[in-house]
């Protein structure tokens, strides 16, 4: 068995068939080749590795070179996707070998964190990933927003097909990503699918020409739902302008359903607004995203709190060793070495960096040994945060 990076064209024969078998209805009624060929440009800069025996691909895994805001810094992030093994080659360690090689190569190229959507979180927990919050959805009847119809609001709203408004949307996402912890961005070649598929309307709120809110959405039918992928705003006015736009669908759709960060409180958006907020995780198709740190040195400069501690990272091919983490200047300083007072697994460190677990939880979850003194410093360094990944892959 050898591991090899395949060329773009080889995806048609080596990785797409394995993925199609794993994730789609099969055998397909018609040959997939034309559909796959059309999909190639959106994979252009991805790194796909296969484990092969002679000419036969036994397993495949892909990394998308993405970017992600982690505590205020845009970091190069490896988005892992398309992990699949030939049905006769499963449980033989192929994906373990592929993933370690792939993450190592992405790390060499400067990707300091990684995100994926697991089929089963425990599978990726053994590779150092920790669960991040899943986006919530809010749903409400547009009739509940009737008050907004008469509201006198500054600013304006633009409505267009995604193919027409894509550049505006992308620019807004790039700006938003610089402000929001956890937000992940596809590379241009992959994101362009949103424009080319053109399966969304785009509504944009602006004040003095600056975009302050945007929603990509579709309508499922007359008296159906208006489904917004993610309601993304930078100001309360941006949200109100979008909500007023939705209110004007009162005799067209019965519900508005919108994706939201896990810490949003839509019951506060208006008076007499009846909302249902939901979050579901399901194995294998509806899991929360997971993330891990690939390089601790690359975290230098993150916006952190005033703590200082030396930790030993254990049992990980990418992070092993002792590191002193110092946040007393407001930006994280990382120095190799020191007398460690806590031991963390890769997932334990990742949980703290992303802000999703308290240090006290780590020993209880088997993610480290953290005495009370070290927990206090780690808590000061890495205050809790709610990452909102947005990108789904
Ligand atoms: C899930 C899948 C990718 C695993 O690939 P594989 O080559 O069989 O995995 P490996 O043999 O390298 O197993 C790696 C580790 O995970 C464990 N593992 C394998 N399948 C598992 C599963 N379904 N659930 C939990 N653990 C699993 C193995 O025991 C092994 O543990 P170890 O290294 O600590 O001993 C493969 O079975 C598959 O293609 N399934 C269908 C498609 C799919 O679900 N893809 C995942 C997309 S995110």
Automatic annotation (TrEMBL):
PROSITE patterns (UniProt xref): GNAT
Domain N-acetyltransferase: 1-154
Protein name: N-acetyltransferase domain-containing protein
Organism: Phytohabitans aurantiacus
């Amino acid at each position: 068995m050898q591991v090899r990076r395949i060329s773009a064209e080889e995806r048609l024969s080596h990785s797409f068939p394995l993925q199609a078998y794993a994730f789609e209805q099969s055998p397909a009624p018609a040959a997939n080749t034309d559909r796959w060929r059309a999909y190639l440009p959106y994979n252009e800069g991805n790194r796909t590795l296969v484990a092969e025996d002679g000419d036969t691909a036994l397993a495949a895994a892909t990394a998308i070179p993405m970017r992600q805001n982690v505590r205020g810094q845009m970091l190069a992030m490896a988005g892992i996707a398309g992990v699949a093994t030939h049905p006769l080659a499963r449980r033989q360690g192929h994906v373990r070998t592929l993933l370690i090689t792939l993450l190592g190569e992405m790390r060499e190229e400067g990707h300091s964190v990684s995100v994926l959507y697991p089929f089963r979180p425990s599978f990726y927990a053994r590779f150092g990933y920790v669960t991040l919050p899943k986006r919530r959805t809010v749903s409400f009847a547009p009739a509940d927003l009737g008050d907004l119809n008469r509201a006198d609001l500054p600013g304006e709203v633009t409505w267009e097909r995604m193919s027409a408004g894509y550049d505006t949307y992308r620019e807004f996402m790039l700006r938003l990503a610089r402000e929001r912890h956890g937000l992940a961005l596809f590379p241009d070649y992959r994101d362009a699918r949103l424009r080319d598929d053109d399966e969304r309307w785009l509504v944009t709120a602006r004040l003095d020409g600056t975009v302050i809110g945007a929603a990509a959405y579709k309508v499922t039918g007359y008296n159906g739902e208006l489904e917004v992928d993610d309601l993304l705003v930078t100001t309360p006015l941006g949200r109100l302008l979008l909500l007023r736009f939705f209110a004007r669908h009162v005799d067209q759709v019965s519900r508005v359903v919108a994706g939201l960060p896990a810490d949003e409180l839509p019951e506060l958006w208006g008076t007499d607004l009846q909302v249902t907020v939901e979050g579901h995780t399901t194995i294998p198709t509806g899991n929360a995203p997971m993330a891990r740190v690939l390089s601790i040195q690359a975290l230098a400069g993150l916006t952190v709190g005033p703590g200082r501690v030396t930790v030993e990272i254990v049992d990980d091919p990418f992070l092993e060793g002792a590191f002193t983490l110092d946040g007393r200047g407001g930006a994280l300083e990382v120095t190799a070495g020191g007398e460690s007072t806590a031991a963390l697994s890769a997932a334990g460190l990742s949980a703290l960096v992303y802000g999703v677990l308290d240090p006290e939880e780590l020993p209880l979850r088997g993610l480290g040994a953290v005495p009370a003194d070290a927990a206090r410093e780690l808590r000061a360094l890495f205050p809790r945060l709610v990452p909102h990944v947005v990108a789904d892959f």
